[in-house]
Design a protein that fits this description.
By secondary structure, this protein is mainly β. 14% of the residues lie in helices and 48% in strands. The longest helix is centred in the N-terminal third of the chain and has 11 residues, at 3-13.
């Protein structure tokens, strides 16, 4: 992810109820299981982030996921 995209992520984190979709998904590693309707945690760009999947899918610890967007400080991930 380039510096411009990272700056956009940080900007979005500072905005109330902000959501952003990434055009070029990046990979993250699941650190805490992500279940439908429940947040887990991923390791992304040398940091841990809360993460959720809007699909009816479960991701186990150690799985690679794509970061598709961000909602406040929660990453939206998918297969």
């Amino acid at each position: 992810m380039d510096n411009i995209t990272l700056k956009k992520l940080k900007l979005v984190q500072n905005q109330e109820a902000a959501t952003m979709t990434l055009n070029n998904p990046e990979k993250a590693i699941v650190d805490e299981e992500i279940r439908p309707g429940d947040c887990g945690r991923v390791h992304f760009q040398n940091s841990w982030w809360p993460a959720r999947c809007d699909l009816d899918m479960t991701f186990q610890r150690g799985e690679l996921v794509n970061v598709l967007g961000i909602d406040n400080i929660t990453l939206i991930v998918g297969p």
